[in-house]
Amino acid sequence: MTDRSKLGFYLLLMPLMLWLITLIILPHIGLFMVSISEKIGVREYETGLGNYAVFFNEPLYWRTFARTAFMSIFTTILTLVLGFPVAYYIAKLTRGRTKTTLFLMCLIPFWVSELVRTFGWMILLRETGVLSNFLQYTGVIGGPVEFLYNDGAIMVGLVYTSILFMIVPLVTTLDSLDDSLIEAGYDLGGSGYSIMREIVIPHATPGIVSGCIVVFMLSLGNYLTPILLGGKDSLWFTGLIYTQFITRFNWELGSAFGFLLLALSSTIVFLGLKLSRQSLTETMGR
Amino acid sequence: MIPTIPQTNVLKWSYRAYVTLFFIYLALPLTVVCVFAFNDSVFPSLPWEGFTMAWFFGTEAPFIGVFNERSIMRAIGTSAFVAMWVAGLAVFVGTCNAFLFVRHDFRGKGFLYILMLLPLIIPGVILGISILVFASSVANTLEDATDLWFDGLRPGLLLVILGQFSFITTFATLVISARLQKFDPSLEEAALNLGASKWGAVRQVTLPFLFPAIMGAGVVAVLMSFENFNTTLMLVGSDSPLTITMFDKLKHGSTPVLNAVSLLLMIISAALGLLALLFQRSKE
Description:
Number of strands of chain A: 2
Strand order of the largest sheet of chain A: 1-2
Structural class of chain A: mainly alpha
CATH architecture of the largest domain in chain B: Orthogonal Bundle
CATH topology of the largest domain in chain B: MetI-like fold
Oligomer: heterodimer
CATH superfamily of the largest domain in chain B: MetI-like
Number of domains of chain B: 2
Number of helices of chain B: 11
CATH class of chain A: Mainly Alpha
Shape of chain A: globular
Shape of chain B: globular
CATH topology of chain A: MetI-like fold
CATH architecture of chain A: Orthogonal Bundle
Largest sheet of chain B: 2 strands, antiparallel
Largest sheet of chain A: 2 strands, antiparallel
Strand content of chain A: under 5%
Order of helices and strands of chain A: HEEHHHHHHHHHHHH
Radius of gyration of chain A: 24 Å
């Protein structure tokens, strides 16, 4: 390397390092440091795991954590089950212009703010909302029914928000599966089920994994949907973090919560990649 | 299940019905948001009271339209300001990163690449609080040491910009790298042979080739910045961007003004989306 191109290399390296060090690495180290410091007086702290102990000793906190995790896993499974047939339809059963149109229609929610989407569900599901009125009109129910403010509403909203992140990678991987392989499967006497299991799903695994990872992460870190669509008892872990930081001003406990959420989401991503023998670079760096 | 394979009609039609239902599910919330922007009632719900444009242009309470609602107009201005900065910074750093990762081989490249992807798998709320905590501790240290005030590092627009920049840059890097990988380096070598300087060749040959990706990344960055909620929520100060303002209004009961804003947002996004698509087209 000449001196000149070495200079160019360092000039290119600088913005990357500045960005990663000051906005990603140091803040997360800082977050961890705050999470292991306990307040013992005004601007006096000592190092300890007290904040984590608070988390494990207070049932409200760890139950909310577990609830958030389970509901996110459930959202991920639901999104996969609902999204897979649609992705398969777009990738394998349509051609040309129809295909492009359907694919672009799947992307529409991405172009609209999550707030607007959630607002739409509020209009649909509330007691005076469209669904309740429609069902009264058709005579299915006698009086107004509140569909909002429960876990079901949260699931509907979460699936809606994240389904496109499942469908896009699925369509991409299914698209690359040669139709003749499926035909060959039928010629060799396979049933619809066995072909799905032996040919289609193994081929689509990279898409399934990257879709699931993104959907799980988005659900876990979601704040808007559970807060706006959920009821008084439907706590979400990000809501607890917000309360500790902004309302209670207890940054030490809030940081511990944040770190636990980060640990959970990283673990699941790591396990997902390990189980399917994928690497982060190929899954995300599409 | 592909066209060449025979299937019973029942199966075929139930499959189609499912896909149709799915697209209705997809379109429903957005449709009702748009429709109720024109309802002549103070609540965005049924019954339908008649068509009105008051939620856009109205001047008399309670029918104050978007264009006369000061808080919303100001929030749109704030959002646009933030989005411009975020897009500019993200595209600049993204372009540098693309050149670094595509053109250079160095020790630790794989590791840095994974670090670069990390913001994709960090939940937005965590990104927000970690930057908040870090900026505050830097501000505290600096203030203790110098007796000056460092308000820029307290929650406010600077932190919002930095917070959004911190993950949008990854998207910009990926989009621009993908384009740079398709570039034929011999074009640049030709320019060098013809007497161009290294920087001149990059500026006159490579950057014009990258232009569609750079603009595309810019448009996506503007959109993501406009829509971002989680990271912004933790870093926002007294000037709130649009999503935060709307969220506050939504918590205190909604009026069709919010529908009108949402409709405007959708129109802006659609326009930006088309723009991105056009840039994508001009690539080929």
